[in-house]
Amino acid sequence: MAEREHEHVRVAVIGSGFGGLGAAVRLRRQGITDFVVLERADSVGGTWRDNSYPGCACDVPSHLYSFSFAPNPEWPRNFSGQPHIRAYLEKVTDTFGLRPHIRFNAEVRSARWNTDELYWEIETAQGALTADMVVSATGPLSDPQIPDVPGLDGFQGKVFHSARWDHDYDLRGKRVAMIGTGASAIQIVPAIQPTVDKLTVFQRTPPWVMPRADRKITRAEHWLHTKVPATRALRRQLLWSIRELQVSAFTKRPKELGLVQALAKAHMHRAVKDPALRARLTPDYTIGCKRILLSNSYYPALAQPNVDVVASGLKEVRGNTLVATDGTETEVDAIIFGTGFHVTDMPIAERVTGAHGTTLAEEWKDGMEALRGSSAAGFPNFLTIIGPNTGLGNSSMILIIEAQLNYMIDYLRQLDVLGGRIALDARPSAVHAWSAAIQQRMERTVWKTGGCDSWYLDANGRNTTVWPGTTAEFRKVTRQVDLAEYEVLRTQPGKVTEDAGTTVEAVA
Questions:
Q1: Mean pLDDT throughout 422-449?
Q2: How many Å apart are CA 370 and CA 188, to the nearest integer?
Q3: Taking Cα atoms as reference points, which of 500, 184, 152 lies closest to residue 332?
Q4: What pTM value is reported for the model?
Q5: In 71, 96, 112, 295, which residue has its Cα 20 to 30 A from 123's Cα atom?
Protein backbone atom coordinates (compact mmCIF):
# COMPACT_ATOMS: atom_id res chain seq x y z
CA MET A 1 0.00 0.00 0.00
CA ALA A 2 2.90 2.34 0.75
CA GLU A 3 3.97 2.65 -2.87
CA ARG A 4 0.52 4.00 -3.75
CA GLU A 5 0.57 6.84 -1.24
CA HIS A 6 1.58 9.37 -3.87
CA GLU A 7 0.41 7.65 -7.01
CA HIS A 8 -0.88 9.98 -9.70
CA VAL A 9 -3.11 8.97 -12.62
CA ARG A 10 -4.66 10.91 -15.43
CA VAL A 11 -8.19 9.60 -14.77
CA ALA A 12 -9.78 7.98 -11.73
CA VAL A 13 -13.09 6.26 -12.41
CA ILE A 14 -15.37 5.52 -9.45
CA GLY A 15 -17.46 2.36 -9.79
CA SER A 16 -17.34 -0.72 -12.01
CA GLY A 17 -20.90 -1.06 -13.21
CA PHE A 18 -21.96 -0.31 -16.78
CA GLY A 19 -20.83 3.31 -16.47
CA GLY A 20 -17.42 2.62 -14.95
CA LEU A 21 -16.56 -0.30 -17.21
CA GLY A 22 -17.77 1.63 -20.24
CA ALA A 23 -15.52 4.55 -19.28
CA ALA A 24 -12.56 2.19 -18.88
CA VAL A 25 -13.13 0.64 -22.32
CA ARG A 26 -13.43 4.03 -24.00
CA LEU A 27 -10.25 5.28 -22.31
CA ARG A 28 -8.28 2.25 -23.49
CA ARG A 29 -9.66 2.51 -27.00
CA GLN A 30 -8.57 6.15 -27.02
CA GLY A 31 -5.06 5.08 -26.15
CA ILE A 32 -5.28 6.28 -22.55
CA THR A 33 -3.95 3.66 -20.15
CA ASP A 34 -3.00 5.91 -17.22
CA PHE A 35 -6.22 5.39 -15.29
CA VAL A 36 -7.70 3.37 -12.43
CA VAL A 37 -11.18 2.13 -11.63
CA LEU A 38 -11.95 2.39 -7.92
CA GLU A 39 -14.49 -0.23 -6.84
CA ARG A 40 -15.76 -0.56 -3.27
CA ALA A 41 -16.71 -4.24 -3.64
CA ASP A 42 -14.60 -7.27 -4.56
CA SER A 43 -16.01 -7.76 -8.06
CA VAL A 44 -17.41 -5.79 -10.97
CA GLY A 45 -21.07 -5.39 -11.85
CA GLY A 46 -22.48 -2.45 -9.90
CA THR A 47 -26.22 -2.73 -9.45
CA TRP A 48 -26.19 -6.07 -11.32
CA ARG A 49 -23.82 -7.44 -8.72
CA ASP A 50 -25.67 -6.02 -5.73
CA ASN A 51 -29.21 -6.95 -6.80
CA SER A 52 -29.34 -10.73 -6.66
CA TYR A 53 -32.85 -11.16 -5.29
CA PRO A 54 -35.09 -13.98 -6.59
CA GLY A 55 -36.50 -13.13 -10.01
CA CYS A 56 -34.12 -10.23 -10.64
CA ALA A 57 -34.08 -9.35 -14.35
CA CYS A 58 -33.90 -6.35 -16.66
CA ASP A 59 -37.02 -4.68 -18.06
CA VAL A 60 -35.19 -3.53 -21.21
CA PRO A 61 -34.61 -6.03 -24.04
CA SER A 62 -31.20 -7.69 -23.83
CA HIS A 63 -30.00 -6.69 -27.29
CA LEU A 64 -30.57 -3.04 -26.40
CA TYR A 65 -29.31 -3.32 -22.84
CA SER A 66 -25.68 -3.90 -23.82
CA PHE A 67 -22.78 -1.86 -25.13
CA SER A 68 -22.80 -1.07 -28.85
CA PHE A 69 -19.07 -1.89 -28.90
CA ALA A 70 -19.57 -5.24 -27.12
CA PRO A 71 -22.59 -6.98 -28.66
CA ASN A 72 -23.63 -10.31 -27.23
CA PRO A 73 -25.25 -12.72 -29.73
CA GLU A 74 -25.77 -15.29 -26.96
CA TRP A 75 -28.36 -13.56 -24.78
CA PRO A 76 -30.61 -16.40 -23.53
CA ARG A 77 -33.89 -14.46 -23.35
CA ASN A 78 -35.53 -11.31 -24.67
CA PHE A 79 -35.24 -9.91 -21.15
CA SER A 80 -32.19 -11.40 -19.48
CA GLY A 81 -31.87 -12.13 -15.80
CA GLN A 82 -29.35 -10.74 -13.35
CA PRO A 83 -26.89 -13.67 -13.56
CA HIS A 84 -26.57 -13.30 -17.34
CA ILE A 85 -26.13 -9.52 -17.20
CA ARG A 86 -23.51 -9.83 -14.49
CA ALA A 87 -21.71 -12.51 -16.54
CA TYR A 88 -21.80 -10.16 -19.52
CA LEU A 89 -20.07 -7.42 -17.51
CA GLU A 90 -17.43 -9.89 -16.32
CA LYS A 91 -16.82 -10.85 -19.94
CA VAL A 92 -16.51 -7.21 -21.00
CA THR A 93 -13.95 -6.73 -18.21
CA ASP A 94 -11.82 -9.59 -19.49
CA THR A 95 -12.29 -9.03 -23.22
CA PHE A 96 -11.06 -5.45 -23.01
CA GLY A 97 -8.28 -6.14 -20.51
CA LEU A 98 -9.66 -3.97 -17.74
CA ARG A 99 -8.68 -5.96 -14.64
CA PRO A 100 -5.16 -4.46 -14.30
CA HIS A 101 -6.81 -1.06 -13.96
CA ILE A 102 -9.38 -2.05 -11.32
CA ARG A 103 -8.74 -1.58 -7.59
CA PHE A 104 -11.18 -3.78 -5.69
CA ASN A 105 -12.17 -3.06 -2.08
CA ALA A 106 -11.09 0.54 -2.71
CA GLU A 107 -14.13 2.49 -1.62
CA VAL A 108 -13.68 6.22 -2.17
CA ARG A 109 -13.87 7.92 1.20
CA SER A 110 -13.20 11.43 -0.07
CA ALA A 111 -12.20 13.35 -3.18
CA ARG A 112 -10.98 16.92 -2.76
CA TRP A 113 -10.01 19.39 -5.49
CA ASN A 114 -6.57 20.94 -5.06
CA THR A 115 -6.95 24.47 -6.42
CA ASP A 116 -3.19 25.12 -6.45
CA GLU A 117 -2.11 22.02 -8.35
CA LEU A 118 -5.33 21.51 -10.33
CA TYR A 119 -5.84 17.87 -9.50
CA TRP A 120 -8.04 15.69 -7.31
CA GLU A 121 -6.78 14.26 -4.02
CA ILE A 122 -8.53 10.97 -3.41
CA GLU A 123 -8.64 8.89 -0.24
CA THR A 124 -9.70 5.27 -0.64
CA ALA A 125 -9.90 2.22 1.58
CA GLN A 126 -6.68 1.07 -0.15
CA GLY A 127 -4.75 4.30 0.25
CA ALA A 128 -4.38 7.73 -1.35
CA LEU A 129 -3.80 8.88 -4.91
CA THR A 130 -4.23 11.97 -7.06
CA ALA A 131 -5.86 12.33 -10.48
CA ASP A 132 -6.14 14.99 -13.15
CA MET A 133 -9.76 13.98 -13.73
CA VAL A 134 -12.40 12.08 -11.80
CA VAL A 135 -15.27 10.26 -13.52
CA SER A 136 -17.96 9.31 -11.02
CA ALA A 137 -19.89 6.27 -12.26
CA THR A 138 -21.44 5.18 -8.98
CA GLY A 139 -24.91 5.30 -10.50
CA PRO A 140 -28.20 6.35 -8.88
CA LEU A 141 -29.23 2.77 -8.03
CA SER A 142 -26.27 1.87 -5.86
CA ASP A 143 -27.19 2.88 -2.31
CA PRO A 144 -30.41 1.36 -0.90
CA GLN A 145 -32.91 3.56 0.90
CA ILE A 146 -34.75 2.18 3.92
CA PRO A 147 -37.35 4.50 5.43
CA ASP A 148 -37.04 5.55 9.06
CA VAL A 149 -39.93 3.52 10.45
CA PRO A 150 -40.68 3.95 14.18
CA GLY A 151 -40.09 0.71 16.08
CA LEU A 152 -38.11 -1.02 13.32
CA ASP A 153 -35.11 -1.41 15.62
CA GLY A 154 -37.25 -3.51 17.96
CA PHE A 155 -38.35 -5.98 15.30
CA GLN A 156 -37.28 -9.50 16.30
CA GLY A 157 -37.38 -11.06 12.84
CA LYS A 158 -35.26 -10.67 9.70
CA VAL A 159 -34.96 -7.34 7.88
CA PHE A 160 -33.17 -6.61 4.62
CA HIS A 161 -33.39 -4.49 1.47
CA SER A 162 -33.99 -6.04 -1.93
CA ALA A 163 -30.53 -4.86 -3.05
CA ARG A 164 -28.89 -6.58 -0.07
CA TRP A 165 -30.67 -9.91 -0.23
CA ASP A 166 -29.84 -12.35 2.55
CA HIS A 167 -29.46 -15.66 0.73
CA ASP A 168 -28.73 -17.46 4.00
CA TYR A 169 -32.22 -16.73 5.32
CA ASP A 170 -34.81 -19.32 4.28
CA LEU A 171 -38.18 -17.74 3.52
CA ARG A 172 -39.98 -21.07 3.20
CA GLY A 173 -42.95 -21.26 5.53
CA LYS A 174 -42.40 -17.74 6.83
CA ARG A 175 -44.79 -14.83 7.16
CA VAL A 176 -43.21 -12.15 5.00
CA ALA A 177 -43.91 -8.46 4.45
CA MET A 178 -42.93 -6.84 1.16
CA ILE A 179 -42.65 -3.08 1.61
CA GLY A 180 -43.09 -1.25 -1.69
CA THR A 181 -44.40 -2.08 -5.15
CA GLY A 182 -41.65 -0.85 -7.47
CA ALA A 183 -39.63 -2.61 -10.16
CA SER A 184 -37.85 -4.92 -7.69
CA ALA A 185 -40.95 -5.79 -5.68
CA ILE A 186 -43.00 -6.94 -8.67
CA GLN A 187 -40.23 -9.43 -9.48
CA ILE A 188 -39.74 -10.59 -5.90
CA VAL A 189 -43.43 -11.15 -5.10
CA PRO A 190 -44.10 -13.87 -7.70
CA ALA A 191 -40.70 -15.45 -7.03
CA ILE A 192 -41.29 -16.01 -3.30
CA GLN A 193 -45.09 -16.30 -3.17
CA PRO A 194 -45.20 -20.08 -3.81
CA THR A 195 -42.88 -20.90 -0.89
CA VAL A 196 -43.83 -18.49 1.89
CA ASP A 197 -46.65 -19.19 4.31
CA LYS A 198 -48.13 -15.70 4.10
CA LEU A 199 -47.08 -12.69 2.03
CA THR A 200 -48.32 -9.21 2.85
CA VAL A 201 -47.60 -6.50 0.32
CA PHE A 202 -47.61 -2.95 1.69
CA GLN A 203 -48.58 -0.81 -1.28
CA ARG A 204 -48.39 2.94 -0.79
CA THR A 205 -49.10 3.60 -4.47
CA PRO A 206 -50.12 0.95 -7.03
CA PRO A 207 -47.99 0.76 -10.19
CA TRP A 208 -49.19 0.43 -13.76
CA VAL A 209 -48.10 -2.99 -15.01
CA MET A 210 -47.93 -4.04 -18.65
CA PRO A 211 -47.39 -7.54 -20.12
CA ARG A 212 -43.79 -8.64 -20.44
CA ALA A 213 -43.04 -9.93 -23.95
CA ASP A 214 -40.37 -12.31 -22.72
CA ARG A 215 -39.36 -15.60 -24.30
CA LYS A 216 -36.35 -17.80 -24.75
CA ILE A 217 -34.16 -16.77 -27.70
CA THR A 218 -33.86 -19.73 -30.04
CA ARG A 219 -30.72 -21.51 -31.22
CA ALA A 220 -31.51 -20.37 -34.75
CA GLU A 221 -31.48 -16.75 -33.61
CA HIS A 222 -28.18 -17.27 -31.79
CA TRP A 223 -26.66 -18.81 -34.91
CA LEU A 224 -27.98 -16.05 -37.14
CA HIS A 225 -26.78 -13.24 -34.85
CA THR A 226 -23.34 -14.87 -34.62
CA LYS A 227 -22.84 -15.68 -38.29
CA VAL A 228 -24.60 -12.62 -39.71
CA PRO A 229 -23.83 -9.68 -37.38
CA ALA A 230 -26.02 -7.38 -39.48
CA THR A 231 -29.10 -9.19 -38.15
CA ARG A 232 -28.03 -8.48 -34.60
CA ALA A 233 -27.51 -4.82 -35.44
CA LEU A 234 -30.92 -4.67 -37.14
CA ARG A 235 -32.60 -6.17 -34.08
CA ARG A 236 -30.99 -3.56 -31.86
CA GLN A 237 -31.96 -0.78 -34.28
CA LEU A 238 -35.60 -1.87 -34.31
CA LEU A 239 -35.76 -2.07 -30.52
CA TRP A 240 -34.22 1.39 -30.28
CA SER A 241 -36.50 2.92 -32.92
CA ILE A 242 -39.69 1.70 -31.28
CA ARG A 243 -38.69 3.32 -28.02
CA GLU A 244 -37.64 6.56 -29.66
CA LEU A 245 -41.11 6.84 -31.23
CA GLN A 246 -42.71 6.48 -27.79
CA VAL A 247 -40.90 9.47 -26.29
CA SER A 248 -43.23 12.23 -27.55
CA ALA A 249 -46.18 10.69 -25.69
CA PHE A 250 -44.27 10.90 -22.41
CA THR A 251 -42.76 14.34 -22.98
CA LYS A 252 -45.26 16.31 -25.08
CA ARG A 253 -48.63 14.56 -25.43
CA PRO A 254 -49.44 12.51 -22.31
CA LYS A 255 -53.06 12.15 -23.46
CA GLU A 256 -51.83 9.76 -26.14
CA LEU A 257 -51.03 7.29 -23.35
CA GLY A 258 -54.74 6.56 -22.89
CA LEU A 259 -54.63 3.44 -25.07
CA VAL A 260 -51.60 2.13 -23.20
CA GLN A 261 -53.45 2.70 -19.92
CA ALA A 262 -56.44 0.75 -21.22
CA LEU A 263 -54.16 -2.15 -22.15
CA ALA A 264 -52.67 -2.13 -18.66
CA LYS A 265 -56.16 -2.27 -17.11
CA ALA A 266 -57.09 -5.19 -19.35
CA HIS A 267 -53.88 -6.94 -18.31
CA MET A 268 -54.89 -6.59 -14.67
CA HIS A 269 -58.49 -7.68 -15.23
CA ARG A 270 -57.38 -10.90 -16.94
CA ALA A 271 -55.44 -11.98 -13.84
CA VAL A 272 -57.38 -10.42 -10.97
CA LYS A 273 -61.05 -11.40 -10.75
CA ASP A 274 -61.77 -9.97 -7.29
CA PRO A 275 -63.29 -6.47 -7.76
CA ALA A 276 -62.09 -5.31 -4.34
CA LEU A 277 -58.51 -6.33 -5.09
CA ARG A 278 -58.69 -4.74 -8.55
CA ALA A 279 -59.80 -1.49 -6.92
CA ARG A 280 -56.77 -1.54 -4.63
CA LEU A 281 -54.46 -2.26 -7.57
CA THR A 282 -55.81 0.43 -9.92
CA PRO A 283 -53.66 3.59 -9.96
CA ASP A 284 -55.30 7.02 -9.85
CA TYR A 285 -52.61 8.71 -11.96
CA THR A 286 -51.76 8.73 -15.66
CA ILE A 287 -49.72 5.78 -16.86
CA GLY A 288 -46.08 6.77 -17.33
CA CYS A 289 -46.06 9.26 -14.45
CA LYS A 290 -44.23 6.59 -12.48
CA ARG A 291 -42.11 4.02 -14.28
CA ILE A 292 -44.25 1.52 -16.20
CA LEU A 293 -43.50 -1.97 -14.93
CA LEU A 294 -43.48 -5.19 -16.94
CA SER A 295 -44.65 -8.52 -15.53
CA ASN A 296 -46.82 -11.49 -16.49
CA SER A 297 -46.67 -13.03 -13.02
CA TYR A 298 -47.17 -10.16 -10.56
CA TYR A 299 -50.95 -9.92 -10.75
CA PRO A 300 -51.50 -13.71 -10.68
CA ALA A 301 -49.32 -13.89 -7.57
CA LEU A 302 -51.32 -11.18 -5.82
CA ALA A 303 -54.51 -13.12 -6.53
CA GLN A 304 -53.27 -16.19 -4.62
CA PRO A 305 -54.92 -17.02 -1.26
CA ASN A 306 -51.67 -16.64 0.74
CA VAL A 307 -51.16 -13.04 -0.42
CA ASP A 308 -52.72 -9.94 1.06
CA VAL A 309 -52.38 -6.43 -0.39
CA VAL A 310 -52.51 -3.60 2.12
CA ALA A 311 -53.28 -0.42 0.20
CA SER A 312 -51.21 1.70 2.54
CA GLY A 313 -47.65 2.38 3.52
CA LEU A 314 -45.91 1.08 6.64
CA LYS A 315 -46.43 3.45 9.56
CA GLU A 316 -44.73 1.73 12.49
CA VAL A 317 -43.49 -1.56 13.91
CA ARG A 318 -44.66 -2.88 17.29
CA GLY A 319 -42.61 -5.94 18.17
CA ASN A 320 -43.30 -8.31 15.29
CA THR A 321 -46.48 -6.52 14.28
CA LEU A 322 -46.46 -4.13 11.37
CA VAL A 323 -48.94 -1.27 11.48
CA ALA A 324 -49.99 0.34 8.21
CA THR A 325 -50.99 3.97 7.81
CA ASP A 326 -54.63 2.87 7.49
CA GLY A 327 -54.39 1.00 10.81
CA THR A 328 -54.08 -2.51 9.39
CA GLU A 329 -51.99 -4.76 11.64
CA THR A 330 -49.98 -7.72 10.37
CA GLU A 331 -47.68 -10.06 12.27
CA VAL A 332 -44.66 -11.22 10.25
CA ASP A 333 -41.37 -13.06 10.56
CA ALA A 334 -39.43 -11.12 7.93
CA ILE A 335 -39.51 -7.67 6.33
CA ILE A 336 -38.19 -7.07 2.83
CA PHE A 337 -37.81 -3.43 1.81
CA GLY A 338 -38.24 -2.72 -1.87
CA THR A 339 -38.11 0.99 -1.21
CA GLY A 340 -35.65 2.12 -3.82
CA PHE A 341 -32.38 4.01 -3.65
CA HIS A 342 -30.80 7.37 -2.89
CA VAL A 343 -31.38 8.76 -6.37
CA THR A 344 -31.69 12.53 -5.89
CA ASP A 345 -29.34 12.54 -2.89
CA MET A 346 -26.53 10.25 -4.02
CA PRO A 347 -24.17 9.51 -1.08
CA ILE A 348 -21.04 9.97 -3.24
CA ALA A 349 -21.92 13.66 -3.41
CA GLU A 350 -21.20 13.99 0.31
CA ARG A 351 -17.62 12.79 -0.25
CA VAL A 352 -16.67 15.12 -3.10
CA THR A 353 -15.35 18.59 -2.19
CA GLY A 354 -14.93 21.13 -4.96
CA ALA A 355 -12.98 24.31 -5.66
CA HIS A 356 -14.96 26.43 -3.18
CA GLY A 357 -14.52 24.07 -0.23
CA THR A 358 -18.12 22.83 -0.36
CA THR A 359 -19.27 19.31 -1.08
CA LEU A 360 -21.31 18.35 -4.10
CA ALA A 361 -24.13 17.43 -1.70
CA GLU A 362 -24.08 20.97 -0.29
CA GLU A 363 -24.13 22.48 -3.76
CA TRP A 364 -27.05 20.24 -4.66
CA LYS A 365 -29.05 20.77 -1.48
CA ASP A 366 -31.75 22.62 -3.44
CA GLY A 367 -31.68 20.14 -6.32
CA MET A 368 -29.13 18.44 -8.56
CA GLU A 369 -27.80 20.39 -11.53
CA ALA A 370 -25.09 19.42 -13.98
CA LEU A 371 -24.24 20.76 -17.42
CA ARG A 372 -25.35 18.20 -20.00
CA GLY A 373 -25.87 15.77 -17.15
CA SER A 374 -22.13 15.64 -16.49
CA SER A 375 -20.43 18.77 -15.09
CA ALA A 376 -21.30 20.60 -11.88
CA ALA A 377 -20.11 24.19 -11.40
CA GLY A 378 -17.20 24.48 -8.99
CA PHE A 379 -16.02 20.91 -9.57
CA PRO A 380 -13.32 21.14 -12.26
CA ASN A 381 -12.37 18.05 -14.25
CA PHE A 382 -15.15 16.08 -12.55
CA LEU A 383 -17.73 14.26 -14.66
CA THR A 384 -20.75 12.25 -13.52
CA ILE A 385 -22.01 9.33 -15.57
CA ILE A 386 -25.80 9.04 -15.19
CA GLY A 387 -25.91 12.46 -13.58
CA PRO A 388 -28.87 14.84 -13.14
CA ASN A 389 -31.63 14.56 -15.76
CA THR A 390 -30.08 11.69 -17.68
CA GLY A 391 -32.49 8.93 -16.62
CA LEU A 392 -34.93 7.22 -18.96
CA GLY A 393 -38.45 5.96 -18.44
CA ASN A 394 -38.78 3.77 -21.51
CA SER A 395 -35.42 2.86 -23.05
CA SER A 396 -31.92 1.59 -22.30
CA MET A 397 -29.65 3.57 -20.00
CA ILE A 398 -26.67 2.13 -21.88
CA LEU A 399 -27.51 4.56 -24.70
CA ILE A 400 -27.24 7.49 -22.29
CA ILE A 401 -24.03 6.12 -20.78
CA GLU A 402 -22.37 5.80 -24.18
CA ALA A 403 -23.38 9.37 -25.07
CA GLN A 404 -21.79 10.62 -21.85
CA LEU A 405 -18.66 8.62 -22.61
CA ASN A 406 -18.42 10.50 -25.93
CA TYR A 407 -18.54 13.71 -23.89
CA MET A 408 -15.83 12.40 -21.55
CA ILE A 409 -13.49 11.58 -24.44
CA ASP A 410 -13.97 15.00 -26.03
CA TYR A 411 -13.40 16.62 -22.62
CA LEU A 412 -10.01 14.91 -22.43
CA ARG A 413 -9.27 15.89 -26.02
CA GLN A 414 -9.99 19.53 -25.21
CA LEU A 415 -7.57 19.36 -22.27
CA ASP A 416 -4.90 17.95 -24.58
CA VAL A 417 -5.46 20.66 -27.17
CA LEU A 418 -5.28 23.42 -24.57
CA GLY A 419 -2.10 21.84 -23.15
CA GLY A 420 -0.23 22.09 -19.86
CA ARG A 421 -1.55 21.70 -16.33
CA ILE A 422 -5.15 22.68 -17.01
CA ALA A 423 -8.73 22.19 -15.89
CA LEU A 424 -12.22 22.99 -17.11
CA ASP A 425 -14.83 24.25 -14.68
CA ALA A 426 -18.46 24.49 -15.80
CA ARG A 427 -19.71 28.07 -15.66
CA PRO A 428 -22.59 28.53 -13.20
CA SER A 429 -24.49 30.49 -15.85
CA ALA A 430 -24.19 27.59 -18.30
CA VAL A 431 -25.26 25.02 -15.71
CA HIS A 432 -28.27 27.07 -14.62
CA ALA A 433 -29.30 27.79 -18.21
CA TRP A 434 -29.11 24.08 -19.06
CA SER A 435 -31.11 23.11 -15.97
CA ALA A 436 -33.72 25.84 -16.49
CA ALA A 437 -34.29 24.74 -20.08
CA ILE A 438 -34.83 21.15 -18.94
CA GLN A 439 -37.25 22.17 -16.20
CA GLN A 440 -39.21 24.26 -18.69
CA ARG A 441 -39.51 21.24 -20.98
CA MET A 442 -40.52 19.14 -18.00
CA GLU A 443 -43.75 21.13 -17.53
CA ARG A 444 -45.45 19.34 -20.42
CA THR A 445 -44.33 15.83 -19.52
CA VAL A 446 -46.38 13.06 -17.98
CA TRP A 447 -43.96 13.05 -15.03
CA LYS A 448 -45.13 16.57 -14.19
CA THR A 449 -48.78 16.45 -15.26
CA GLY A 450 -49.63 12.83 -14.52
CA GLY A 451 -50.68 13.36 -10.91
CA CYS A 452 -48.23 11.13 -9.08
CA ASP A 453 -45.39 11.42 -6.59
CA SER A 454 -42.50 9.39 -8.00
CA TRP A 455 -38.84 8.74 -7.20
CA TYR A 456 -38.05 10.92 -10.20
CA LEU A 457 -38.84 13.97 -8.05
CA ASP A 458 -36.56 15.48 -5.43
CA ALA A 459 -37.60 16.90 -2.04
CA ASN A 460 -38.64 20.15 -3.72
CA GLY A 461 -40.86 18.43 -6.26
CA ARG A 462 -38.48 19.03 -9.19
CA ASN A 463 -37.76 16.26 -11.65
CA THR A 464 -33.97 16.19 -11.56
CA THR A 465 -33.76 12.57 -12.67
CA VAL A 466 -35.26 12.02 -16.12
CA TRP A 467 -34.15 13.25 -19.55
CA PRO A 468 -37.17 14.86 -21.30
CA GLY A 469 -36.21 13.88 -24.84
CA THR A 470 -34.99 11.12 -27.11
CA THR A 471 -31.69 9.31 -26.72
CA ALA A 472 -30.73 10.56 -30.19
CA GLU A 473 -31.15 14.14 -28.98
CA PHE A 474 -29.08 13.45 -25.88
CA ARG A 475 -26.33 11.95 -27.97
CA LYS A 476 -26.34 15.07 -30.13
CA VAL A 477 -26.03 17.52 -27.24
CA THR A 478 -23.21 15.52 -25.64
CA ARG A 479 -21.23 14.91 -28.81
CA GLN A 480 -18.59 17.49 -27.90
CA VAL A 481 -17.58 19.94 -25.20
CA ASP A 482 -18.44 23.58 -25.83
CA LEU A 483 -15.61 25.61 -24.26
CA ALA A 484 -17.92 28.63 -24.05
CA GLU A 485 -19.68 26.77 -21.23
CA TYR A 486 -16.47 26.38 -19.20
CA GLU A 487 -13.88 28.45 -17.44
CA VAL A 488 -10.38 27.34 -18.43
CA LEU A 489 -8.06 27.13 -15.42
CA ARG A 490 -4.26 27.05 -15.69
CA THR A 491 -1.52 26.87 -13.11
CA GLN A 492 1.14 29.54 -12.80
CA PRO A 493 3.85 29.71 -10.16
CA GLY A 494 2.04 30.43 -6.93
CA LYS A 495 -1.47 30.80 -8.32
CA VAL A 496 -4.20 29.58 -10.64
CA THR A 497 -5.50 31.81 -13.40
CA GLU A 498 -8.41 31.80 -15.81
CA ASP A 499 -7.33 31.37 -19.40
CA ALA A 500 -9.37 33.07 -22.10
CA GLY A 501 -12.60 32.23 -20.31
CA THR A 502 -13.98 35.77 -20.33
CA THR A 503 -13.16 36.23 -24.01
CA VAL A 504 -14.83 32.94 -24.94
CA GLU A 505 -17.96 33.82 -22.99
CA ALA A 506 -18.15 37.25 -24.60
CA VAL A 507 -17.87 35.77 -28.07
CA ALA A 508 -20.48 33.13 -27.21
A1: 97
A2: 34
A3: 152
A4: 0.94
A5: 96
